[in-house]
Amino acid sequence: MNKKRDLPEKIRMTLSNIAVATGALAFVIALLAIAHRIATHFKLAQRIIDKPDDKKALVIEHSLAVDPRRRLLLIRCEGRQLLLLTGGPQDLLVGWLGPKP
Fold first, then answer.
1. pTM score > 0.90 for this model?
2. Are the C-beta atoms of residues 70 and 85 closer than 8 Å to each other?
């Protein structure tokens, strides 16, 4: 008989714990939504890697792994393109591509 009295109390405690956990989860989700709105409003949530844009002065357009250590980068700097080899004993500017503006 003693077990039958304890059973509803255990169930009530479990439902109480579930309610507290659900409320805490809802609170955290609300905080994340508010933080997202603030970051979007102040443009803090911009992507690091973005499509090349004419408004940007320096953009990595392409990257090619030459070997496990070295990479060949095609970079656009203020409308001109250049090839840069990185990762070796020293970085090397291979050359500028295209006409001077």
1. no
2. yes
